[in-house]
Amino acid sequence: MQQLTNQDVQAFIEQLVTIGGINHLNKDMVIVDDKDEPQSIQDGDKVKAIQILHSGMIKDEDKFILNPFKMIEGNNPALTWFYSSRIMILATIVKEIILKLVELSVSKETESYDTLHLLENVSEFCDKQTIEELSKINSLDYFRIFYNKKTRTAEAQTIIFSDDLESQYKLRKKTLTAVRTLMRNLFKLKDDENTLSAYKYHATILNIPEIDAKLHVYYQVLEVLELPAKLINQDLRSEEFKKHLDNLEAYARMYAWFTAKTTQNKVVVNNNSPQGLPIRQDVSVPVIPIQTGVPTVPTPVAPTPVASSIPVISTAPMVPVAPVSPVAPPIAPPSPYGYPQQQEVVRPVGLVPPAPPVMAPQMVVTPMAPTLPGMQYSQQVVIPQQFGVVAPPAPPTPGTMPAFEKPVIKIG
């Protein structure tokens, strides 16, 4: 059994942000570039930085609050930018590897014997002009990830094998042959394969299907690029990424519980359960929701047991006792406000049951302690007894109803 903490979630987010070495996180969890300048996107007339949602943060109107494990839908520019930029960075890594391989082929140098197979059948098609031509190709034309919302499937795509590539970028025939051969070598495609459709994933996490599908394809490509990426001094850490990816659904659930005051959110994951579903959420400590507009889940409270409203009737024989003169409950005078009168209850003299009937208890919901502005408070509700002696009405508020004395009537 594996126990996950906020630190695990933060480690995964940090890896997503830092892949490619273009972005990292500052101390306030704001995404910044290599010059420590915040990555910003347009929001109407404002330009806002992007801050990762985290425990204890303070709402800032000048920042987009990003939950990276939230469903991509509607107008969410921060989330759209985040995953689009991650794919763009990976596409740039693919392009840089291709250019590096052409450079090695032209120079006849070998930096690693582990990458020799990537240069097979390309040397005769590469020269210095090849590098210039391939540099003009857009990174997303080398690689991109497409998501089909209808089938909840993500798939890697490229236009390197497109018939229009030659005319679009005005490439020589030998350059076209070189780049296509390198793409097949890099992605381990067969000679007759002209697509990247082998890199595909169907989402299984239904509340975040697009993120689930895209990140799995992302991992598949990270894994195949792990060794070649070292040629451009990139450590993709695909094994670490896979470990985090196995906990993706648990991370998404943990992020839904992030609060401003929390000691340490934990989810216990049973590795034998389907998809690594969390089987316990530690919510024993009351928490205060973050004031960022991000919905949080209220702390579950066990319901208070309520006795049955059906009276218990004894079947035991009556036990003779000394005669008594019971006193009936007070009877209120007719009320001008329409309140019901109490009813006289007469018990037989000399016989009493061994146990009094169980009356339906009063259910009282006490007011909740104040939490945050804008939150509703519970009100006290009293439900009168339904059996036996009817509960007397609540005493009137002074100045609103005439006061009266409660007469005591003796019977017998």
The dominant shape is elongated
Strand content: 5-15%
Order of strands, main sheet, comes to 1-10-11
- Percent helix, as a range, is 25-40%
Low-pLDDT windows of residues: 259-316, 324-329, 344-352, 360-390, 400-407
Rg measurement, Å? 36 Å
Quick rundown:
This protein is α+β, with helices and mostly antiparallel strands and 412 residues long. 26% of the residues lie in helices and 12% in strands.
Layout of helices and strands:
Layout: E1 2-5, H1 6-18, E2 24-25, E3 31-32, E4 40-43, E5 46-52, E6 63-66, H2 77-107, H3 128-135, H4 139-142, E7 144-148, E8 153-157, H5 165-169, H6 173-187, E9 200-202, H7 209-225, H8 238-245, H9 248-255, E10 266-269, E11 278-281, E12 319-320, E13 351-352
Parallel strand pairs: 5-6
Antiparallel strand pairs: 1-10, 2-3, 4-5, 7-8, 8-9, 10-11, 12-13
Helix pairs in contact: 2-3, 2-7, 7-8
